[in-house]
Amino acid sequence: MKKTFVFKLLIDLVYYYFFAGIIGILVIFPFLYFFLGESKIELAGVETSLGSLTFTHWIIIILGLITYLLFFKGLYHLRTVARVLLSKNFFSLKTIQHLNTSGTYFLYSSILYFVVLVTSFIFKIFKGQISMSFNTTTTLPIFIAIIGLFFILQSKALQIAKVYKEDNALTI
Amino acid sequence: MAIIINLDVVLAKRKMRSKELAAMIGITRANLSILKSGKAKAIRFSTLEAICEALDCQPADILAYVSEK
Do the Cβ atoms of B35 and A167 come within 8 Å? Predict the structure, then answer.
């Protein structure tokens, strides 16, 4: 099935992209912080230098990192689902469990992402910057939450379908 | 399960093998084995009809109810 193959390929691409991001965060950020403290970065929409990060900055960084890791974990489980689907085993327990777990992680990451956005928005107001924009940044956490919930519901539907399939297999 | 399948008894009376019955009614030997062993969850009327026709018997000859209480 070509669609399953493309599905797995796209998930793998996003997975490795995010994995590269983790490596970047773990390697580049400490290097910039300890050796190039005066480097300018944009955090929560406000330009600041790494050497003068406030408590709020750190809260946003840590929450952002947790959001990133939760999303990455969701991708990991989704990758397992894609691998199982590639073997045409649609109704296996592994598919159901990993789809449910992936959806849960996506949901949590979307909630935390929303918290990060709100915190950033309030921080910008306190810095004297008020800006409203119409882009995907504000709708992205909602979309990720929709995807997460859909995966959770889909896993429940697959669980019910698995029971029907087993009953059908034992109907002579 | 409370429904007992007495297919072995009827097959013995008719001196027929499971393999022959499976071929006659158009199901696999594995499925017939599932039916005989009581692991089946349900039986289609079409299958029951085919079995009764092949063995020249009534459904009551093949199926029995035993209360589990």
Answer: no
Q: Chain B partners of A167 at a C-beta cutoff of 8 Å?
A: 41-42
| Predicted-complex ipTM score | 0.83
The string of pLDDT tens digits covering residues A64-105 is 999 999 999 999 999 999 999 988 888 999 999 999 999 999
Closest-CA residue to B27 (of B40, B15, B14):
B40
pTM of the model: 0.80
Model pLDDT, residue A44: 63
Q: Identify the DSSP state of A65.
A: H
| CB-CB contact of A107 with A29 (8 Å) | no
Contacts of B42 in chain A (CB under 8 A): 167, 170-172
Please write the tens of the pLDDT for every residue from A42-55.
Answer: 666 666 777 777 88
Give the closest-approach CA distance of B10 to chain A in angstroms: 18
